Amino acid sequence: MSRAPREILIRPVITEETSRLQFNPGRIRKRHQGKEGEIQPQFVFQVSRGATKIEIKRAVEKMFEVHVSSVNTMNILGKDRRVGRSVGKRSDWKKAIVTLAKGEVIDVFEGV
User: Fold this and answer.
1) Closest Cα to residue 17, out of 81, 103, 75, 95?
2) Residue 53 burial (CB < 10 Å; 0-12/13-18/19+)?
């Protein structure tokens, strides 16, 4: 059963590193490749924990009307947090790094 793209993609992850991956793809070199040249832009999203790579690819292509060349995923474990004597835990979540085809861009900061 297919889910709606908004159920799969929860939010974009915006940090210094993810901004660097989005806006300066030509300046970043992959350490272990040894090849010089332009690298495709990558975008990072928090996704549903049960989402597969194929579902994530289809959701990004449908929502942003771009072509996705690859999807890498990882499960992030929530950290333990303490407030006084109380101990709590942040939620576990899933991160997806989406690589787009050459020349494609997602405008994450629309209307900001």
Assistant:
1) 95
2) middle
Any domain includes 41: yes
Tally of domains within the chain: 1
- Please give the residue range of the domain that contains residue 84: 5-29+37-100
Predicted local confidence at residue 110, as pLDDT: 57
Q: What is the pTM for the complete model shown? A: 0.81
Residue 51 belongs to a domain: yes
Tens of pLDDT, residue by residue over 54-91, are 999 999 999 999 999 999 999 999 999 999 999 999 99
18 domain-assigned: yes
DSSP element (H, E) containing 79: none
